[in-house]
User: Fold these one by one.
Assistant:
Number 1:
Amino acid sequence: MDPMDKHQARSWLATALEEARAGLREGGIPIGAALYGADGTLLGRGHNRRVQDGDPSAHAETSAFRDAGRQRSYRGTTMVTTLSPCWYCSGLVRQFGISRVVVGEAGTFHGGHDWLAEHGVEVVVLDDPECAALMREFVRENPDVVCHENVSRPAT
């Protein structure tokens, strides 16, 4: 598998950002994800629904994974997410052999992407300002709804 082209990564991130915005419109946490096939086909997309569904396991990555349906193999696939994946979602990537993770931003939450890289998953961190702004604003406006214990809270 060739290393991820940054232009392509940003293009795919747009899908995850659409999902993050959809989650925010629903009153949820603005985290979106998309799973792309090795050939660049969009397999599945989704957003965090923890608040909307009252389900702590309804993360954006799991939503996109479920939307993709069962695949013969996940080798060569790319999980694109607006926020660094938590340990739960990082485990999903490892469990199913997803080859690459594109992270919109890792400043508000530094999840398991370093661990994934240590275990052979290609990780591309884009430091996208819109992804960071969405999460910072959400945390500022919703201090009681924290998506992860380690989300950086803005200074007051």
Number 2:
Amino acid sequence: MGIYLLKRFLLIIPTLIGVMSINFLLMQLAPGGPVEQTIAKMENLAHISEAAVGQNHLYKGSVGLEPELVDEIKKLYGFDKSLLERYVSMLWNFARFDLGESFYRQSSVVSIIIEKLPVSISLGFFSTLLIYLISIPLGIRKAVRNGSRFDVLSSLIIVIANAIPAFMFGVVLIVFLAGGSYLDIFPLRGLVSENFDSLSLMGKIKDYLWHLCLPVLCVSLGGFATLTMLCKNCFLEEIHKAYAITAKAKGANEKQILYGHIFRNAMLLIISGFPAVFVGMFFSGSLLIEIVFSLDGLGLLGYESVVNRDYPVIFGTLYIFTFLALIVGIISDVLYTLIDPRIHFGAKNG
């Protein structure tokens, strides 16, 4: 196991380099970089679609500006250096976990990410928790009553819920429950109320959770189907195996068979995949959900960074997310061995 983990940790380095290299080249080839956007703003242009970058040519967007000013703008964003120099500099900075500063926010990338983390962590953690708390019992129940009216009806509801866009569901919730046209039960915007600092500890917790109810419900909506059906299929597979049939023949009741024999084996994929599911929910914070509920998280940050070609923020967040995703993959493998000691990644034939 130790050798396997060492190999996995060593593979993080080339994987990070590969991911960052591909995205670096894609962003460099994309038209409308920060230099062109700055020139366009200075000339009060509404569109910059005709701007193009050339190695030894002036920018088309620079018409009307002094060449010296264009050179200063290029130097400001580091585009006075060659493509190779910028690439090597990026890799060297990331190796030291120096993510640089945003082109437009006058702040370091690390501080910007930390500022947006509360929203993304809140949505990711509580939506993942809600999905697991509902999907696992529901999946077990569907497996036990496979083919029954309950199984068919619950599957129909899950499929319909999975087909509803999360942002549309959010709009409906706002209209009916957040002071839109009917009830005014839940707050409409933000992660906390304006008087949050003046509340007691219990008041702060209640206010925080109350603000999260609707966005967490929307983010969780699409995650129920996959986990519920995975749980059902895992239990169905184990229920028909010889050890479960033998336990039933020896007189064990349904609960003893389910939770004493089947549960550990059936939950192997589900529990070991929890870190990956959580990180997935955390990273993919829905942009539209953040907009609908006026939440300023990583989803909105990523969108604005791509639109503005804020390269330090784009590459910095991508670097951190990729690194954490690789670490989480290793944690998932370790959980496999903890849940089922029969699994040995270090075995020659395993």
Number 3:
Amino acid sequence: MVELHDLPAVELRNLLRTGEVSAVEAAAHFLARIEQRNPLLGAFITVTTGQALEQAKAADARRSRTAGGDLPLLHGMPIAFKDLTDVAGVVTTHGSAALDHKPAPADAPLVALFKDAGVISLGKTQVPEFGLTAYSENRIAPPSRNPHAPSRSPGGSSGGSAAAVAAGLLPFAPGTDGGGSVRIPAAACGLVGLKPGRGLVAAGESAGDPARLVVPGPLARNAEDAALMMDAMAPGGHYLGALRREPPRLRIGITLDSPWSGTFPFTPDQEALDALRAGENLLEHAGHTLGDAAIRYDNRYPDAFTTAWTAGVGAARISPAREASLAPLTRTFRRRAQQRSPAKLAESLAFLRRFQHDTLAQYGEWDLMLMPALAQTPRPVGWFTGTAHGSEPWPSAQWPGDADGDYRKQCEYAPWSSMVNVCGLPAITIPVHWTGGSSGSGLPMGIQLVGPMGSEAVLLQVAHQLGF
């Protein structure tokens, strides 16, 4: 008998709508999975069992009243939100020991959007402090771990959500992506991760994001499940229906060029190149035309991006007495952000607008751009910070303070992510390769496809066409 957590999200949604599975049954099942597996994986910071079961009972009562005729799109579907996103009555920690952890007074726009779609929230998932890093470790809770290899990180900043989906603690989950925070953990955990284009999903958080980098997107086990979530996040897009059609034959440009190469020279791991070759073979077999694309990036990009990326943490309301509780990377980049003049930020934002224009012109010679999702295999827990800690939060006094080394490692790990946010483009990561040779064996590695504005449906169609 197939367990509920083994079902694709689309199939579970259909069972909930027909009443073959009740919302209470689904919530209780996934809550039991969380209780069983979260102590190892650290995917959740907070589990809201009581609230979830009450919501599920209300969903079942609604279905009884309507006889299943007028149900929201995601009726009864269990999900969870990153612990950067406010859920009414639930503590938002932002992954930080420097903040008071108080229940949120109201739902964030993203949460309100999903509640209107009928979901049942099971809790809050693990994040790095303020969502700043490509790994999901902080000083307030155990690190999030990769279900395929618990000694490895699931990536970040949506790492807890990705670990939960990959381990069957959730059928799918929304993440937010400001520099790769959906696509990095999706790639590390063997999931499909879609970053929509800027402005498509109106529920993104805008505070502290002067470059408009952050957009919500789905983390899912396949393209159909991601499309279902997109139908809730961007109503009217008909993404799930679009998968009934094949994508057009596309001209796809292959590139290893990165705007980080001048500042942080890197060599992709062989596993990353193997994933790229696997993706090329699948795309060619599907009838697409591939060719090499040489992309020229301005070497001033790293400084400008870092200035924009850290502006929010510089402006965050943190008591001076609590700043010592910040992780070294957060504390270092907060101090630097506060020391920058408003003119410097304005100059960086103006540069990034020019960078966007120049990059779009080069990408525009192709229908899609193809590159590895990550330059390295999923990294060990503690690798970025030099802590290599165990199951407990790392004590503040012992957390090494090499913020610049940490940042460099992140940029070398995920050198093809942030420029997509700067350009505002849609992008998808697809798990086309496993280091052990077959799905579930070894570590997942993926490709990233970047499309023009409005190409979310095409990206999902291609992922579906390739068998994901």
Number 4:
Amino acid sequence: MSVNTSTSPSSDDDSDRNLDSPGNELTFSAAVVIALLSAPAVVGNALILATIWRRTFLRTSFHSLLSGLAVTDFLTGLISQPLYALFHLIHRKNATAVQDNSEVVNVIGIIAGFSTYLFVNITVDTMTVMSVERWLHMSRRSLTTSHRRYYAAIVVLLFSIPPLVVYSLALKEPAFWNTLSKVKIANFSFCYLTMSFAFFKVYQIIRRHQLQIQANGTSQNFGQPAIDLAKYKKSVETMLYIFLLFSMCFLPFAMSSAVALISTAEVTKNAMSLSLVFVYLSSSLNPWLYIWRMRDIRRGLKQLLAGLRP
């Protein structure tokens, strides 16, 4: 997924490809909201990272992936959101500053767009790896060893490279914007289907164990070690909540991006602006979801805050 926040010195037809036009009134309002969402994203994810890195509880591969997601959300709130808001606020309130410092303003827009696109892709890829990790964990093939965690991190980064290459090309040649839209939709569709499939497989595993327990009064699975069904169900439920929040925040943007391929109407541009607010909103809501659903995170945070008191 992408957000085109850069201005282009090309023709008016090329500027119409910018689905997030700085002059749009709704886009300006969205920028104000995004600026306000920056603070809770930075503070909330900083607390989550500090809690996990203090090692007050046993960290698993899931916590490693979760910390990666928190880092991405933290950087989104620290870099992407303020720059996105600044770019649109400058365009809306100070046309003279735009004319006198056009290169600086353009650089702000490019950094905001590129960083947003980078962090969004990393978020989508990390969520995909997290769902697969839960599936492997339930299948007794977890990413428990350090080298497998590194492999997972490499996969996340590698999947983010091709879309970023296309994005870089689109900054130089506006003709690539349609290609970029197709790439981001294809990437999101693949990751979303992978997540859905992984959760379906996890549901099958849990359901199979439940039926065995009911039939045999035991949680043995064909000679494999027993699993703590209640524990894993809670873990999967937590991941499912994260997935639902992800869907609520990212699906509208993916759908509006798909519509933008066939329509450049004003309503499409407005839909893009509104859906982008939800994308940024996820960075602010995620840490509070972790605190609500994960007891170890909640306890660790309480200990962290208690240690900060004089």
